[in-house]
Each structure stands twice: as C-alpha cells, then as structure tokens.
C-alpha cells in the first residue's frame, strides 16, 4: 500500500479535495480503464479493505450486493473504520480514507497482521469515491452509528453521528459509479463471482456473499472455504472434470519475517499445467519470483528424491521442470509487506527475496511429504517419466520435420533406381525391403514406369531394434527424398513424384513390421498421401506350385491346397522364404506386373490401425501420447 502522505496535504480541506482531481482527470491511471474492467475494479478496491480487516482476524463475513441501478454495496463485520479526528488533518479518519489519495489501509498497521490490500493498482477507497456519482459510508462502532456521504469525491456534509445502534461493529460502503467517468455501468454477476470466489479461496475462513438484487436476475451465493487454496485446487479439478492422481492436495507453507508463502498442489491425469500464482491476493498472470522459486524447488525435490530412491538410475538424465508440471494444478500464494509488481501490465512479482523463501519452503516440505507418502511419490514420478519420454519422442519428430532443408533438395537417394517416364501420374515406386529383393525388383521391373527404392539391406531386425531409433536416424530420409513432397506441415502433394507408392515386403513377421512402420510414418508425416489413395501394399505370393512346365502362385495356405488339388498328381508346392528368393521374372509376374499383380490400396483407417499397432509394439499408451504430440507436430498424432 502507499505511504502515508498526509503531511503533504496540510490541514486544509480544499487541498485535500484538490487531491482527488487527478483521479477524475485521468481515471485510467488509477483503475486501468474506464471500461468494464475498471468498473468492476471499483468493487475489488473496496472489498480489499474488508479483506485486510479479515486478515487481521477481525472480520469473517463480507457481503457484496449489486443493487437496482447497478449500485454496489459492500458490508463487513469488522471493527469499523475509525471515526476519531485525525490530528494532522483535523478531520475524522474515515473522511481521510475517502478523500485523501493513497490514504487507505494505513490504520492499525502494527497489530493487524498482514497488510496486503492494494495489489494491481492498490489505489484505495478515495479513488472509488472520486469516480462515484455518490458514495455513502456507514460505520457501526461500539454501539454507535456514523454516516458520511460524498458526491464525485466531495463531502455532502460532515461525518454524522446517528446515535446508538444494536448492530454489531462493521463498515458498509454504498456507491454508484459515475456515468461521466465510465463507458459502461452494468455489472456482470459472473465477473464479480469469479473474483470474489478467488478471494474466498485465498483467505481461508472468510465468508464472502455475493447477491444480485437487480429485477429479473436475483441470485446469491455465499463462498466460504475452510481449506483455503487447497479448496481452490479441488475446485479447479471438479470444475474441469479432472481426475486426481493422488487423493490429497499437497499443502506446503512457511514464513520468514513479514512474508509468508503457501502452496497447494495436486496432480491429475491430464497433461496441462495449471499454475496460478498470487501476491497479496492479487493474481500474477506472468508469474515472477514466487513462481520461479516454486518451479525450481519442484524440479529439484523430485530429482533428488528420484536419485535417492533409485527411481532415476545413474545413466538417466534428470527430469525437466516441464515433465514434472504435466498434469499439475498448483496455487502459489505469497503475502509480503511491499510487493513489487513488474512488467508492462504489472502482472509479475519482482521481490527477489521471495524466490528464496518459496523455493526453500517448497523443497524442504515437499521432500518431507515424498518421504512420508512413497506411493504418491511413485505415481507422480512415473507420470513425469512418461512425460519425459514423450518429450524426447516429440523432439525427434520435430527434428525430422525440421530437417526439411536436407529433404527439400532435388538430390535423389543413392539407392533409388528411377524410371524413364517423368509424368508422376503414370509412374510407380516400389519401396522394397532388403538389397537382394531390390536386385530382383530392379531387373524384373518395367523400367519405363517403375522405380525401385531398396531400404536398409538385411541388417535391420525390426523386432529387436527400437523402432523409434529408425526415426532418430536417417533411415527414412531416402523415402522422403524419392517421393519429393516433404513431410509435416511442409508436405506438398503436388510435388509427389510417383502417384502409386508400393510397399513391397516379405509375407512374414519382419515384412509386416516393415509395412507397419512405413504406414505409421506416412500416417504421421505424410497423411495426405494416404488420404489421396497413393499408397499400396504389393503382396508377393507365399507358395509356388509346379507341375512340369505349369507354374501357379498361391498367396496363402488355403489357396495353395486348392491349387494343388486342381493340378492333381505330381504337383509340388514350395514356400518362398522371402522376396530375395524369387528371380526377376517371377517377381514381375506375381507382384509387379500391372496386369497380374495382387495389390491392396491403403485407406486412412488401415494406416490408423498400423499406427495403433505400432504404438502397441512400442508399449505406449496411445491416448496420452496423442494429446501430447498433437501439440507438437502436424500429422504426428502419436509418439514416435
Ligand atoms: C483499522 O484498524 C483499526 C480498526 O479499524 C480497522 C479498519 O479500518 N477496518 C476496516 C475498514 N474494516 N472494514 C473497513 C472498510 C470496509 C469497507 C467496505 C470499505 C473501506 C474503505 C474500509
């Protein structure tokens, strides 16, 4: 709050009144705006005074009423604003509160606990008075009733002593925002409700009642949260339908000198970070030292705990802060004597000593909590580990997309055996597993329209190799280069070099893994390729059935037995172990000849299934990854 500048004003009432003129000249300077935000700010400014009284443990109920005509009434059951004459000004203290700029909240500072009112603007009741067409304050104090009224900040008359009353102590302020000052005058119940609920969370045990008395929209809600910011976390989870990961909200608190900090936190099964920080009950949307201290300590506490308990192995890297904040809802609230709000919008706390205070409290208390709650610790740790893996995977996916310069060149992969025809509509590419199959395909193809791209030779055992490593290195770059249309958000279907893209793999487990891998890759990084129907599987036969000069091919066992029966005595069946076993003519005849071959056009559903299979193969849970990756790379809906 501002300093006590009362001496500057001397004893003259005229001088005091002049003090409020700047407020009416430049209202935006004091309340931010003269739009809806400023209008609502008037209410908070008055309520803050009652909150101060509550923080001094002298008030536990604050009532805010929107009356007919958008008149606001704020009433509390505190001690009542002092009415005795202020020696320096020669007028009652309550009059000073409403007529002297920056005079609010300075009474009884020593014994009143945390003096925290006046956050974002912190301009006090006199500013509200200056911007009100009229304002009336009623003080109930020690069985007596006092009243004073103002118009546009100027007293209607002196403070009146209205005589005895049975009512308990308290203060009531009623005001009507000045139409000359505000663009809009209508109050929004929901906006007030939201902010007052926040105040109720931030000030545990204080009941705040909001009532709308305006005709046709009468409603009222009383908000009291004994759990304070713990209840805030519960509320956020309930309101958003979020499932907590562990039963109790973790509550960490401590103080040092005049400052205190409290943190309430709980993880849920979502992936979003929901951290709200406050300084002196004012939200700090841009964070600041309190939030920094919290994040730093959270990361350190979990990593140290993980190392100590062997949850993180020697070779493992530390979990990053972001990993530990996935699915975290946290409220950080600090109270300090002189909050410094920084930045253009004063939305960031700047007091450096608060960083150390918060990080110290959070680290120590969190370590303690984790020691005492190993099951909770484990659940959180595992979630963060998953986040870490997903982050790694997403990074690889992005790297791949970013490698576009290398992928955009007209350079063709060394192993590509291209066709003569240049019109993509007429051409086909066969992506073939293994060098020997590549050799047969190269010799057996129609070199006018068919291009061959052999992949990987034989060295890749897909079952053993972590498939994500395939993405991590350059194994798929030749495919991207040969197709010519890039990947991710750079994908351009008009640059496609072959309108039919065949995946030709062995009819065995390895072969099907290759298919799965390529389809997953297309699905994630070149989805339109599938959507436009450019992708096919070329199916080589499994059996050759021969009788004399007569040769037939079967694509499965059933077909084979039927053919055997048809050909009769002397027919012999042999099983192809792989594409490499076929000679060029056989490969052409059975798998590549447009007149005879068996091909399957891949639909987006097929690719989606491949993607699922792939993820199961990888032992991933699909949904969580999906949500995570969707944020990071176009077409990359799942983790790679
Ligand atoms: C200050 O310390 C001495 C006893 O009175 C304390 C005080 O000023 N309490 C107080 C002020 N309670 N409520 C207010 C207050 C309430 C409203 C609605 C508006 C204003 C400006 C002050």
Report on the structure:
This protein is an alpha+beta fold and 640 residues long. The chain has four domains: 21-221, Heat Shock Protein 90 (2-Layer Sandwich); 229-388, Ribosomal Protein S5, domain 2 (2-Layer Sandwich); 412-539 and 592-629, Rossmann fold; 543-575. It has 23 helices and 26 strands. Strands 1, 2, 5, 6, 7, 8, 9, 10 and 11 form a nine-stranded mixed sheet that branches. A five-stranded mixed sheet has the order 12-13-16-14-15, sandwiched between helices. α5 packs parallel to α8 and α10 (289-309) runs parallel beside α12. The two termini are 53 Å apart. The structure holds ligand TTJ. Ligand TTJ is lined by residues 46, 49-50, 53, 74, 76, 78-79, 81-82, 97, 104, 107-108, 112, 125, 171, 173.
> Given the C-alpha coordinates, what overall shape results?
elongated
Strand fraction equals 15-25%
Q: What value does the Rg take, in angstroms?
A: 37 Å
Distance between the termini: 53 Å
Compounds present? ligand TTJ
Tell me, what is the CATH class of the largest domain?
Answer: Alpha Beta
Low-confidence stretches: 1-17, 104-122, 458-473, 619-640
What is the averaged pLDDT score? 85
Structural class by SSE content:
alpha+beta
What is the strand tally? 26
Number of alpha- plus pi-helical segments: 23
Tell me roughly what share of residues is in helical segments.
25-40%
The major sheet is characterized as: 9 strands, mixed
What's the CATH architecture name of the largest domain?
2-Layer Sandwich
Q: What's the CATH H-level homologous superfamily of the largest domain?
A: Histidine kinase-like ATPase, C-terminal domain
**CATH fold annotation of the largest domain:** Heat Shock Protein 90
What count of structural domains?
Answer: 4
